[in-house]
Amino acid sequence: AAVAAPTPAPAVVAPAPAAPSAPLPSAAADPEAPFRVSVGAFGNADNAARQADIFRNAGYPVFTGTQGNLSIVLVGPYQDEADALTVAARIRSGAFGVDPVIYRFQSDAASAASSTPAPAAAPAAPVAAPATPAPTPASTPAPSAAPAAAPATVAPPVSAAGGRFLQVGAFGSPQSAQPLRERLASLGFAASEVREDGMVKLLVGPFDEAGLNGARQRLSEQGIQSFPR
After folding, report:
1. Per the count of CB atoms within 10 A, which of 95, 116, 154, 165 is most buried?
2. Which whole-number Å values give the CA distances from 42 to 9, 97, 105, in the listed order?
3. Dihedral angle, C-alpha 216, 219, 223, 229, nearest 10 °
4. b/e map 7-45, b = 16+ CB within 10 Å
């Protein structure tokens, strides 16, 4: 009797490897490069250090700065705004739970970028050095105190698309604005401060049109009123 030939086993096809994520833009070697990405503002410096560690361990170049009484965690700096926008988009799409904000550094103004470096960590990513303020000429004595009306604010945030801001409050003094600033920070918004008409006004942004509407909805859900400007 004829013997049937054995049926060959089906070929096993290995699954194609997943495409790797595009590499992040490298931080600029110049510590005064103009663009940096804010990923959190905290009233407690220990909380800021923990946030910095989270992003450093994820491969981002991180340093910390100050904004009033807040400690700010910054990623960068970057020479090109396009690089900062790319990094902000990667952070926003990740699992960090923050809404990053892009700031422009100005070396002759008090800003979040005139900062101290974050604590040293494993060399997974370069850590940007703090900007060094220009020395005061020997012939010019330093003022004994800043004028009472001088605002201690960061440089205004910028957006390549010319985005808009949301005003979330107006106060008689920075101290009275501090509770709302800290609450905004806990929600992932880094507020900037402007002084107009004798008032301290808090702004968040900038946002494109879709981002503006989304941020306004999030703030409203938390009982925080806002309006575009």
Report:
1. 154
2. 61, 15, 20
3. -50
4. eeeeeeeeeeeeeeeeebbebbeebbbbbbbbbbbbbee
What are the beta bridge partners of residue 6? Answer: none
Is pLDDT of 55 > 90? yes
Whether the per-residue pLDDT at 163 is higher than 50: the answer is: yes
Q: What pLDDT, in 10s, does the model give residues 180-212?
A: 888 888 888 888 888 887 888 888 888 888 888
pLDDT score at 199: 82
Q: Are 169 and 199 in contact (CB under 8 A)?
A: no
Distance CA 62, CA 65 (A): 10
Q: Give 165: exposed, middle or buried? Use CB within 10 Å, 0-12, 13-18, 19+.
A: buried
Count Cα neighbours of 183 within 13 Å in the Cβ-side half-sphere.
13
CB atoms within 10 A of CB 158: 16
Q: How many CB atoms lie within 10 A of CB 173?
A: 9
Question: What sections of 59-208 are H helices per DSSP?
Answer: 81-93, 174-186
Average pLDDT, rounded, for the chain: 72
Report which of 203, 116, 218 is spatially closest to residue 158, judged by C-alpha positions. Answer: 203
140 DSSP assignment:
S
Omega within 30 of 0 (cis) for the link into 119: no
What is the spatial distance between Cα 152 and Cα 68, in angstroms, rounded to a whole number? Answer: 6
